[in-house]
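Incident review: delayed structure delivery

Summary: a single-chain prediction request sat in the queue longer than the usual turnaround. Root cause was a stuck worker, restarted by the on-call engineer. No data loss occurred. The affected request and its eventual output are reproduced below so the record is complete for anyone auditing the incident later.

Affected input:
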Amino acid sequence: MLQALVQWLAERPVGRSQRNMKIRVKLGTSDGIEVDQVDRGMGVSGVLKGDRGGQLLLAVLALAAVLVPLLNLAVPVSSPWHLSTYTVTLLGKYLTYALLAVAVDLVWGYLGILSLGHGAFFALGGYAMGMYLMRQIGDRGVYGHPELTDFMVFLDWSELPWFWHGFDLFWLAALIALLAPGLLAFLFGYLAFRSRVTGVYFSIMTQALTYALMLAFFRNEMGFGGNNGLTDFKDILGFDLQHDGTRIGLFLASALALAGGYLACRYIVQSRLGRVAVAVRDAESRTRSIGYRVERVKLFVFTFSAMLAGLAGALYVPQVGIINPGEFSPLNSIELVIWVAIGGRATLYGAVIGAILVNYTKTTFTGVMPEAWLFALGGLFVLVTLLLPQGIAGLFARFRRSPPRSTEAVV
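Output delivered after worker restart:
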């Protein structure tokens, strides 16, 4: 289904006599796009062909999926090899951040759209899952109401808001976690792209969207918990969220989502649609002039990226135990861009490296000097920009003695 959709989006509405027209786009070899590559139902091996970083990433994820549960559940607490449940939760959170960074890299690195609104898509997915988790509390809340959540009872609400109905079903909450950010991105992107809003103007608009949503979710009458958000979750799918086994399950789900999201993004960037997207990034006017539906390509990639961000948010919330309007903060979206820039733009695996590295540093640094973290993050970004313009992924390419070189991709 994805293959058919990708092929349809990359088609040009031109006559048969024009089918042999080609455009050539300069790419780095780090993109892993072959000159003579065509879409023929690529399997996993085909998607990862030439992507050493991606192969290593998936190998590390597979190893972690085996070792983390063993070190947490099978190794005694008294052993120095025991992995605490807190560490498992922290690793799971890092993996959701990595998936979010991959979503940002897809739209920024390969389409050239600097979105400062992906924090909003992440938060929307988180709120959808948070609503499901709140409905699971039932009469175990502070006020003991079997249907209304604690904040609704506190605000003297007499009935459940209409948009909360159905969120006692996990499948519906999971579906909304994907569709809500996807629909918002589709509507926003449709209006912006058909008006040919690009560059810094698009970035400012996405930032304004994020800020507007943050202000809206802070209001109690919106029905999402106001400034306190949603918290005090008890269980998910009948499993206690505080149980070690549940935490392991969430970690494995995050690892699986990251692997699946990475493979889906690799499939897109290696497909004909991906090559058209890179052409749009490097020469939008030329790509449009030869017949490609530029707005259609932008809209699909932007919407798909938003849905990945929503999935990351849905996996994030049950692991951290809270979702509030602070997740909509424009600063969060800006920080996402820094993760990708540090890891290496237009590599996908570099985004994963940047997200995990920056957040691990943040966890360590804020434990020592929390007030100085933003200064340290800014300094790290400046240093990477000056010394490693291609990010950490570019540094790995140097170590392999095969730095990214110019390659022509035929679209």
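Verification: Residues 2-8+22-410 form one domain.
Action items: add queue-age alerting; document worker restart procedure.
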